Structures are given as C-alpha cells and as structure tokens.
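Margin note from the TA: students keep mixing up input and output lines. Inputs are the sequences; the output is the structure of the whole complex. Example:
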Amino acid sequence: MRLDCKHVWPYISDYIDDTVTPEERRAIEEHLEHCEICSAILDSVHNILVLTADDRIFRLPLGYSERMHERIGAELAKAAPGDSPE
Amino acid sequence: MAQALAQEMEWIARILSGERDLFHELIRPYERAVFLTAVSVLRDATEAEDAAQEAMIKAYRGLGSFRGDAKFSTWLTTITLNEARSRLRKSAKVKVKSLDNTDQAEDYTPFLVADWREIPSETLEREELAKQIERAIEGLPPTYREVFLLRDKEEMSIEEIAEALGVKANLVKVRLFRARMMLQKQLAPYLKRELPQRRRWFSWLGGRA
C-alpha cells in the first residue's frame, strides 16, 4: 500500500490514537519517513494536542471547587438521594 | 482501575444507604472533567460553573438510578452534557447556528508547513498563545468541540465518548479528525518554529497510549 500526502491526512488522527491497522500503520510510517510535509503536519497536530491537555488551557475558575462542595453540602443536608436525575 | 470502580460502587451503595457525605469524595476526581464538559457546550466559564454544579446536584438526586452498566464518569458526563445543552437552548442570547450541522464532507486540507517545531510546555508561558488556543477551540462547531474536548482534554476513550453522546464510535472518530485538522490549520501559523534541529517525528509516539 503506497500513499500520497492527501491520502495520509485522513489517517493522522487515527494514527495518533493508534486505531489504524498494522498495514495502514506501515504505509503511513513509510510515507512519513520520506515526507517532511506530512511529518511536520503530524508534529503540529500532536503538539496542539499536548498544548490542549495542559492545565493552563481552560483553567478552572478560582474557588470553583469550594463553591461546588458548598452547594453539594447544602443539598446533602436537605435531602437523601433519589432515583431520578431530574 | 477495576479497584477504583469497585470503590465507587461501594461508595454509591453507602451513600444510598445514608452516608450522604461520601458524595463529596465520590465526585472529587470528576470536578474538573464536569467543568470542561460544560465549557465544551457553553463556552463561558461562569455559565459552565453553574451547569457543573447543577449537574452534580442532579447526579446526587438521581444516584439511585445509576446501575453501573456504564462507568460512573460516563454517566456523569451524560448528565452534564444534558444540563449544559438545556441551558444553551434556554439562553436567549445564543442562537442555534447552522454550524451545528457539520458532519458533511468539507475540505480538511491541513496547513502546510515544511518544518514545524516548538517545545509545547514552554510556549504556554506566552499567555496570548493559551488564549489563542482556547479561542480556536471555542470557535469549533459545537459537535466537534464536544468530541475534541472530551477526547483531547478529558482523555476519555472513543467508546466512552460514543456512549456519553449516544452516537456511533465512527462518528466520534470523524468529528475528532475534523476538529483536530481544523485546529491544526488555524493554530499552526501562530506556533512559529523555534527548534532549528530536525527532530525525529516519531519520538513522541511511545508517550501517548
């Protein structure tokens, strides 16, 4: 299986998640080995995912946890758990 | 993992039989995830916090209906998504956009860069870059944004996301692919190269399971 650049792109996401077949993986890696463009794209997608996972992206509001537990505490004092989320 | 699940089931049983305060401990590991799930729908920290609190209260009120066929975290995600979406519908200022219907084929040509290297942890010291990334994520179509944050922020599995959203795993993968490529296209130009050396592209592969 030989791939062109534009045939590699749809696999980049699955490749990162490791949900490609062994045959696809071989073909992708063979392509990446000699293609600077696709390996740079893969790098950039991966780096964006690393950045996204960082705690500095979408920080929790200050005092979030305290307010959460205060609210829960008030509810616990009020009622026993039921069997309907509504 | 299995041990943590057994612990949760035990806590839930004890909460239901009267040890209410254990609910604080039960939800502690998921506070952050619930907030992020709400943000993925509402895109506003204040509204997301309200929705997160409400979702937790609903989870407490409905705890007796949790059967343990899904993971507690997945169940909690579903409750949070429902809560956030219902708030979004009620919020008059947010109009339902046609953007929502985006599972159609589009052009996902990536941003082409011949060499793109940067050390991620250091780049976030630049405050404006963090904002840029948040804005780009917030700008994704809603269905893509949800899947992207559940997977790449909360690190849920494709199967768990499919279960929480009530859609097929393949659809989750398609949305995830498009979200990632849209972000690549939008963000790559801002992340200028800083490493002159050619880094081997597969060096990170072992780090992500």
